[in-house]
Specification:
Organism: Thalassotalea eurytherma
GO molecular function, one term: endonuclease activity
Protein name: Endonuclease
Number of helices: 12
Largest sheet: 2 strands, parallel
Keywords: Disulfide bond, Endonuclease, Glycoprotein, Hydrolase, Metal-binding, Nuclease
Distance between the termini: 35 Å
CATH architecture: Orthogonal Bundle
Strand content: 5-15%
Pfam families: S1-P1_nuclease
Helix content: 40-55%
Order of helices and strands: HHHHHHEHHEEHHHEEEH
Strand order of the largest sheet: 1-2
CATH topology: P1 Nuclease
């Protein structure tokens, strides 16, 4: 399948970032806790090397910048012209008759290739190693938000409006992409520290298998298969194509109950996989 990649989310929406700032912090905080002290120290050293004016996009004054907060850096530098080339790396768009994601779906720049590229750059070291760490960590999280592996025609769900059933409090997220970025994972109203503790306590044993670059296409396909589900509210299947919904998706308590455990599972997978890559690379 031919991939269609355009810089849509980044140019049209300041609200929809993969998993939002909260989700990125959660994933990187969990990944950090899965590493040993030597690896954690290497990460801290790299984070401290971020230029001061770019740190100020994440924390004000001389407040300490943590790795978890630094994982939002790729979203914060979008308006800086020197980083324009990375805008298409936040997502992967394919055609509506595509049944599975493979490496052939990304001929140019995309989030899956971003993981591979910046893992290599992190391993090489050099003066851009801090950037490589933060891009890599951000891309792994992005890859596990299903609507970052979708279609250009509706801006990855940004044009799929949502309304809220009376069974749940109305949230501020007004489209399906935004809801999956932010409002679903934040519906428990926990702090990052509280959520990290809860998920770490219930985390299954981490796989010990070696990470391979080819794995990212499997991860991308996992996300893609989730949004193909009829209950996800994104696809109307016709003639083996995922056609867009004409009306908004209604978010009910049942929808939230079904997909909150799934988004938590995606967060856990992202954290474990990121920790695996970092432990093999640092």
């Amino acid at each position: 399948m031919k991939i269609i990649i355009i810089a849509f989310i980044l140019l049209t929406s300041t609200k929809s970032f993969a998993f939002g700032g909260y989700g990125h912090e959660l994933i990187c905080q969990m990944a950090d806790q899965l590493l040993n002290q030597e690896q954690q120290h290497k990460i801290d050293v790299l984070v401290r090397q971020l230029p001061h004016h770019e740190k100020q996009l994440l924390v004000k004054g001389h407040k300490q910048l943590t790795f978890a907060k630094a994982c939002n850096w790729p979203d914060k530098i979008k308006k800086m012209a020197k980083y324009d080339k990375y805008k298409p790396w936040h997502y992967l768009n394919t055609t509506r008759d595509d049944h599975a994601i493979t490496s052939s779906d990304c001929q140019g720049s995309c989030v899956a290739k971003g993981v591979i590229y910046h893992q290599k750059k992190l391993a090489e070291g050099g003066r851009n190693q801090t950037q490589a760490l933060l891009f890599l960590s951000h891309w792994v999280a992005d890859l596990h938000q299903p609507l970052h592996v979708s279609y250009a025609s509706d801006y990855g769900g940004n044009r799929t409006k949502v309304t809220y059933d009376k069974s749940i409090p109305k949230a501020r997220c007004k489209n399906l992409h935004w809801y999956w970025d932010e409002c679903l994972i934040m519906s428990k109203k926990l702090t990052v520290a509280q959520y990290t503790k809860m998920l770490m306590n219930n985390m299954p044993e981490q796989t010990k298998e070696q990470w391979q670059p080819s794995d990212v296409w499997e991860w991308a396909d996992e996300s893609y298969q989730l949004l193909q589900q009829a209950s996800f509210g994104y696809c109307q299947h016709k003639a083996e194509k995922c056609l867009p919904h004409n009306n908004s998706v209604v978010i009910t308590q049942a929808y939230q109950n079904q997909y909150l455990p799934i988004v938590e599972h995606q967060v856990i997978l992202a954290a474990q996989r990121l920790a695996t890559i970092l432990s093999q690379t640092l």
